[in-house]
Design goal:
heterodimer, A: 122 residues, alpha+beta, OB fold (Dihydrolipoamide Acetyltransferase, E2P), six-stranded antiparallel beta sheet, three-stranded antiparallel beta sheet, 4 helices, B: 382 residues, Gyrase A, domain 2, Alpha-Beta Plaits, Elongation Factor Tu (Ef-tu), domain 3, 3 domains, six-stranded antiparallel beta barrel, 19 strands, 21% helix, 32% strand
């Protein structure tokens, strides 16, 4: 059973036990426009909550994607290197960015559920 | 986000309400509220312009008539030559030429288009510089010319392989114009100025139209199924692929025409040994650059990977070099090339084609190669 949470920086996290799959929201991709390049963290990197973990670039600009929680990167989505446009077509599905082992579950307390995120972007 | 007060202080072009109706995402640009893109998005708008046709609102740019008090256009041309290093006298009636206003240090105050309309010159200047340009013209040319700001006109660019057919329906002479022809023509019965030019590398036209008629004309042109409205985002990626300079980024008050690789735009008559050599601000330095070379040069840059290298990225001669040797002045993703493209300044010794350099992006050194511009072959109808 996974729960999906959201950050104010427009990332989503699908929580399954102590693993979070992280991506950017559909709202974020619609604001960025056509994504042409995604830079992902290295597997094994120890991320600190709120530090820049990945970069997503549209034709016009580069945007940072922040680590929503502290923890080690377990896996990254290689499909994004070959097909960055997946971020536009399936931001909250196939276009996940990375998986992280959650170091401190209490950090999830500050995140939003879907209803709160919808209100945040309304 | 802009505060509402700031948004309200932005100027609007005569096509502003059309942009909003078309779903344009409006952003501040050079003091105007302009569409950066429409719902199609930058990528599709860019590719549409290269494969079919795009309509751009460039009404924020300044349109100025330079009217000789003597009634002789040569007098306006001779006067303008005091401010630019171009041969303006040689522009035949019905033709236009790319030019730059220079400063006393040989730098560039702005770049512009100059057309000969038979009895006066017609200038198109950058939006961000237009107030200064007009003041500059008034301060220096008022003895011989009336400087007439045409603020009641909009400017619409049609660019792409299907621009000619779209305009031909409203202006029978359009197909007979060649690249850089310019003059008064009726478009849909309106008194317009039409030039066969643009800033995308594609064949196309720029149409100066009375402001009150601009929306109607734009809507009529957009009725063509092959025509799509194009925002500033794609305008930037198109001009970058075409290797064209953006004032304030690739050229500015600290770059000479030679450093900017714009030698082609300075005719022999204004260079050392020419019939009217010098006689423009900064001539000493600019002619010295022509005669002895400049120490740095604007070059095209292609990255090996897919990561865009953007404006401001520092350039290095090797992967471990401490001292930057130059800087990227424009960079992004080229949709037609499906790859990153950039331009920037490097020491002349490192400006040869295929020279390998490195750009620093997020703490990493990315390999780049000096590449020929335009990156995408232009399709001007000469």
């Amino acid at each position: 059973m996974t729960t999906t949470l959201y950050t104010t920086d427009h990332e989503w996290l699908a929580i399954d036990g102590d693993v979070a799959t992280v991506g950017i929201t559909d709202y974020a991709q619609s604001q960025l426009g056509d994504v042409v390049f995604v830079e992902l963290p290295k597997v094994g990197r120890a991320l600190k909550k709120a530090e820049a973990a990945a970069v997503v670039e549209s034709v016009k600009a580069a945007s940072d994607v922040y680590a929503p929680v502290t923890g080690d990167v377990l896996e990254t989505n290689d499909a994004l290197a070959a097909e960055p446009a997946l971020v536009n077509s399936d931001a909250q599905g196939k276009a996940w960015f990375f998986k992280v082992k959650i170091a401190d579950k209490s950090e999830l307390g500050g995140l939003m559920d879907e209803a709160a995120y919808k209100a945040h972007t309304a | 986000m802009l505060a509402r007060d700031d948004k309200d202080s932005l100027k609007r072009t005569p096509l502003h309400s059309l942009h909003v109706t078309l779903g344009g995402k409006m952003v501040p640009f050079a003091g105007y509220d302009m569409p950066v893109q429409y719902p199609a998005g930058v990528l599709k708008e860019h590719l549409q312009t290269r494969s079919s046709a795009g309509l751009f609102d460039v009404s924020h740019m300044g349109q100025i008539a330079l009217r000789p008090k003597s009634g002789k256009v040569e007098d306006a041309a001779r006067a303008l030559e005091r401010l630019v290093p171009q041969d303006i006298l040689a522009i035949a009636p019905g033709r236009q030429r790319y030019a730059q206003f220079t400063n006393k240090d040989g730098g560039l105050l702005d770049d512009l288009m100059v057309a000969n309309f038979g009895d006066h010159l017609f200038l198109v200047v950058n939006a961000a510089c237009k107030a200064e340009d007009e003041a500059h013209l008034r301060a220096n040319l008022s003895d011989t010319c009336i400087i007439d700001s045409l603020a009641d006109r909009a400017l619409i660019a049609l660019q792409g392989p299907k621009a000619e057919a779209a305009l031909a329906k409203l202006c029978a002479e359009a197909p007979s114009l060649k690249f850089m022809d310019a003059g008064p023509h009726e478009v849909a019965g309106l008194a317009c100025f039409v030039s066969r030019s643009g800033y995308t590398g594609e064949d196309g036209f720029e149409i100066s139209v009375p402001a009150a008629e601009a929306e109607h004309l734009a809507k009529t042109l957009l009725d063509n199924p092959e025509m799509m409205p194009i925002g500033l985002g794609a305008r930037d990626s198109l001009r970058l692929e075409a290797g064209l300079c953006l004032y304030g980024h690739d050229i500015d008050t600290a770059t000479t025409p030679v450093e900017a690789a714009l030698e082609w735009s300075v005719q022999k008559s204004r260079r050392s040994g020419g019939a009217r050599a010098g006689g423009f601000p900064g001539a000493e330095k600019i002619l010295a650059h022509f005669d002895h070379g400049a120490s740095r040069r604007r070059v095209g840059l292609r990255a090996e990977g897919r990561a865009p290298v953007r404006e401001g990225a520092l350039l290095f001669a090797d992967s471990a070099g401490r001292e930057p040797i130059g800087k990227v002045t424009s960079g992004g993703f080229g949709p037609s090339l499906n790859a990153p493209v950039a331009m920037g300044y490097v020491p002349t010794a490192l400006s040869a084609l295929d020279t390998r350099l490195f750009a620093e992006v997020r703490g990493q050194r990315l390999p780049l190669t000096v590449a020929a511009m335009p990156f995408v072959k232009n399709t001007y109808k000469r």
